[in-house]
Amino acid sequence: MKIGIFSDTYFPQLNGVATSIRTLSHALEERGHQVYIFTPSDPRCKHTQEEPNVFRLPSIPFVFVQNYRAGYICPPHLLMKIRKLDLDIIHTQTEFSLGFLGKLISTTNGIPMVHTYHTMYEDYVHYIGGGHIITQEMARDFSRMFCNTAMDVIAPTRKTEHLLQSYGVTKPISVIPTGINTSNFQKDRFDPREILALRHELGLEADTPVILSIGRIAKEKSIDVVIKALPALLEKLPEAKMVIVGEGNEAENLNALAHSIGVGEHIIFTGGKPWTEIGKYYQLGNVFCSASVSETQGLTFAEAMAGGIPVVAKKDECIENIITDRETGLLFEHEADLPQLLYRVLTDTALAQRLSAASMEAMKALSVETFADSVEQLYQNILDSGEHPRKIATPIIPLVIGAKAAKGITKIPRKLVRRSRKAASELFAASKDSEL
């Protein structure tokens, strides 16, 4: 099969979507499929290091989220190249500029489209004008509209499936958990001396109890809940430290919060780290802790568990298939219980070892092979059905997203803006067709 994956986020950005795409694309390529990834350009990318199957589109900074890019135009030569690839199936992974490009190519060429729903956007509307411009209801309507244009929607968890059904998504939903390559995180992959050197580099001793957070530093990740648990924990375990690995626009606020409650000296912000080093950073932790309930699949939990790091997390449906309370991790419902749970894991060696062993065993079931098997079978079922989206008569033209906003920045010709708006209008109209 020739598969086109369209996503507004990919490496070097560090998040679950990028990880999921790389995991899937590599697994499918190993099975003999040709996979092409279309994503916005990123100034941090060096062309010499780029994967040959990754196509970068012109982009501008997405002002609401630090280090994120928004694709705004698809050059004609790339559109022609995409046509010549003769794709069998399109798999969109986000719902914005590149997602719409994938949708447009699907409908203008009659190529079946699958969509993976990664993000609960109703939890993210605060990024746009503090939630006053786009409401949660608008986010739900938008998600329903986009998902109903696909032939099948992949939901990483039952929680996501139930959410989409509540939105009014009527297209088939396939629950396929994202697999992880456990070898990237296994303890025996890392030399203890290397981990000790990294600890010393961050000002940590070999026996310093470390609470770890890895991922995007954002409001909906509820890292503040973990920070607020530190004063009570430090009363019993004053040598404990928290290491926060990642980047995001909430880092400054969290740093201010930490100093305001007197725990600033116990928190280390490392900033974002390359994907190739993330496995090593997991090994810094004696416990991985997250209070987020905005996840759709909880990949960081799975990565920590694959690395044998005990997990303490807030109870949520998204991690029911990953963590079993008091067996493969510890769950809390009330924030007041968090300090005691962290203290237990950090001081009870037998408990930590039991959770670690059970976690690593549980993650064997969340394999890349199972993930790839399921997605590959879904693709094949759709192709075997012979169904194709109804073609839009409008020919493919350079696609401009947010043309009004981009116009002043990029000086896009007015004629191109008008044509792009017309194409977008037809796309939205076609999205309402139940046969699409």
Task: Give me the secondary-structure topology.
Blueprint (H helix, E strand, L loop, with lengths): L1 E5 L9 H15 L3 E7 L13 E4 L1 E3 L7 E3 L4 H10 L3 E4 L4 H13 L3 E4 L19 H12 L4 E4 L2 H10 L5 E3 L16 H10 L8 E5 L8 H14 L4 E5 L5 H10 L6 E5 L3 H8 L4 E4 L8 H8 L4 E4 L15 E3 L5 H10 L1 H14 L5 H18 L17 H8 L3 H18 L5
Parallel strand pairs: 1-2, 1-6, 2-3, 6-7, 7-8, 8-9, 10-11, 10-13, 11-12, 13-14, 14-15
Antiparallel strand pairs: 4-5
Helix pairs in contact: 1-13, 7-11
List the defining traits of the structure above:
alpha/beta, 436 residues, 15 helices, Rossmann fold, seven-stranded parallel β-sheet
Explain this structure.
By secondary structure, the chain is of the alpha/beta class. It has two domains: 2-179 and 368-431, Rossmann fold (3-Layer(aba) Sandwich); 182-365, Glycogen Phosphorylase B (Rossmann fold, 3-Layer(aba) Sandwich), CATH 3.40.50. The chain is 41% helix and 14% strand. It has 15 helices and 15 strands. The protein has helices at 16-30, 76-85, 97-109, 136-147, 158-167, 192-201, 223-236, 251-260, 275-282, 299-306, 338-347, 349-362, 368-385, 403-410, 414-431; strands at residues 2-6, 34-40, 54-57, 59-61, 69-71, 89-92, 113-116, 152-155, 173-175, 210-214, 241-245, 267-271, 287-290, 311-314, 330-332. The strands form three sheets. It has a seven-stranded parallel sheet, with helices on both faces. Strands 12-11-10-13-14-15 form a six-stranded parallel sheet, sandwiched between helices. Helix 1 packs across helix 13. The two termini are 22 Å apart. The relative contact order is 0.14. Mean pLDDT is 85; it is low at 395-413 and 419-436.
